[in-house]
Amino acid sequence: MIEEKIEQKQETEAQQAPRPKTVFSGVQPSGKLTLGNYLGAMGNWVALQEENRCIFSVVDLHSITVRQEPAALRRQTLEVLAQYIACGIDPEKSLLFIQSHVSAHAELSWVLNCYTMFGELSRMTQFKDKSKTHADNVNAGLFTYPVLMASDILLYQTDFVPVGQDQKQHVEIARDIAERFNGIYGNVFTVPEPRIAGTGARIMSLADPTKKMSKSDKNQNAFVLLMDKPEDIMRKFKRAVTDSGSEVRRGEGKHGVNNLIAIYSAAAGCTPEAAEERFAGKGYGDFKKAVGEAVVEVLRPVREKTEDLLNNKDYLEKVYTQGAENASRIARRTLEKVYKKVGFIKKPF
Ligand code: ATP
Ligand code: LTN
Question: What is the rounded distance in angstroms from the CA atom of residue 42 to the CA atom of residue 38?
Fold first, then answer.
C-alpha cells in the first residue's frame, strides 16, 4: 500500500517536473581550434551539461563546403572530438557524435531545402564573406549551409543553441524554417533560441582586431590555437596589435585593447570593469603579458588532456560509436514525422 502511494507520488512528481531542455551545438573540423572557438563556444558548453540534455556534434558535413584534404579532415575530426572532452564535456552526461555518422542530417536537409527561400539564403553574411574568401569555389553547399545547420538543430527538438555571435543569423534562419514548417504542418519542430556567450562571444584577430579571430586565417599570428605551446601563446600576445593610447581601458575605436580586455576577463573569470581596475596605471606591455599568462593557464589542461586522448583512439571510437547510435535513434523519430507530414509513403523496412 505504502509502496503504491510512493510510486503514485513519484509519477505525479515526474509529470510535474519540467522537461529538461535540449541543447545542441557543433564545431566544424575545418582546421585547428582557436581561442575564439573556446571562449565563444565549447568553453561555455560545460556548465550546460548539469541541467540540460546536451548534444554536441563534430560537423564534418559542413566542413566540406570548403575544400579539405581528406587525411587532414580525418585527423581534425578526431582532434575536435578529443578537444570537446578535454574542455570538460563528459560523454557520460552529453551525447557526442560525428555528423556524417547520422544520415538523418543530410536527409532532413534535403526536405528543408524545399522550405527555404533563395532570397533568405542570399542574405546570409557568412555566405557573402566566404564567397569572397573562396571565390574559386562558390559551391551550392556553401549556399545551403544554413539549411544543414537548421537540420542539425531541428532533428533533436532543440531548445537552446550556444554559439558565438557570428552564428546568430544562422540560428535565426533555423527558427524561421521551423516556424514556416510548423505553420503548414502543425507542431513538428521545437523553435530553437540562440544562446550567445558573454564577453567571449566575438574574439577578434590579434593581428587585425577589426576582423574575427578565425582558424582559417592565413596569418599565424592572428589566432591562438588550443594546442599552441605556452611560449607561442606568450609571443602571439606580445605581438598583438593595440592602439596608439597607453591606458588599459575600453573605448570606442580601441579595437585592440577592447579585444584583449575581453580575452583577459573571459580567461581570468572577471568582469571587464574588474580587469580595467586591475591594470590601472600599468602599460600595454605588462597587460599583454598578463593576458598571455591567463590564457596559458586556461589552455594548459585542455592541451594536455587532448594529447592524452589522441593517444587513446579506442576510447574516442567508443565515444563516437555510442554517440552515433543514440543520436540516430532521436533523429530518426523527427525525420519519420517529417516524412509523414510531407506525404511520403512509410518506409517498408
Ligand atoms: P572558419 O574559420 O573555418 O569559418 P571558425 O573558426 O569560425 O571557422 P566554426 O567551426 O565555424 O569556427 O565555429 C565554431 C563555434 O565557434 C561557433 O559557435 C562560432 O560562433 C564560434 N566562434 C568561432 N570564431 C569565434 C570567435 N572569433 N569568437 C567567438 N566565437 C567564435
Ligand atoms: N555553422 C556553425 C557550426 C554548426 C552548428 C550547427 C552550430 C553546424 N551545425 C548546429 C550550432 C548548431 C559554425 O560554427 N560555423
Answer: 5
What are the catalytic residues? 130, 212, 215
Q: Rounded distance, CA 36 to CA 45, Å?
A: 14
Mutate to test the pocket of ligand 1, among 33, 37, 226 (most ligand atoms within 8 A of CB): 37
Q: Which residues pair with 160 in a beta bridge?
A: 23, 193
Residue among 59, 99, 124 whose CB has most ligand 2 atoms within 8 A, to mutate: 59
Point out the ligand nearest to the CA of residue 163: 1
Domains and CATH numbers, the chain: 2-202+312-342 (3.40.50.620), 220-308 (1.10.240.10)
Q: Whose CA is nearest to atom 22 of ligand 1?
A: 37
CA angle in degrees (0–180, nearest 5) for 292-293-295: 65
Place of cell 572557438: 37
Residue-by-residue pLDDT tens, the chain, 349 positions: 555 655 565 556 556 667 899 999 999 999 899 999 999 999 999 999 999 999 999 999 999 999 999 999 999 999 999 999 999 999 999 999 999 999 999 999 999 999 999 999 999 999 999 999 889 999 999 999 999 999 999 999 999 999 999 999 999 999 999 999 999 999 999 999 999 988 778 999 999 999 999 988 889 999 999 999 999 999 999 999 998 888 899 999 899 999 999 999 999 999 999 999 999 989 999 999 999 999 999 999 999 999 999 999 999 999 999 999 999 999 999 999 999 999 999 999 8
Q: Which ligand is nearest to the CA of 129?
A: 1
Distance (Å, whole) CA 309 – CA 147: 33
Instruction: Determine the Cα–Cα distance for residues 39 and 56; give it in Å rounded to an integer.
Output: 16
Which ligand 1 atom is nearest residue 63's CA? 3
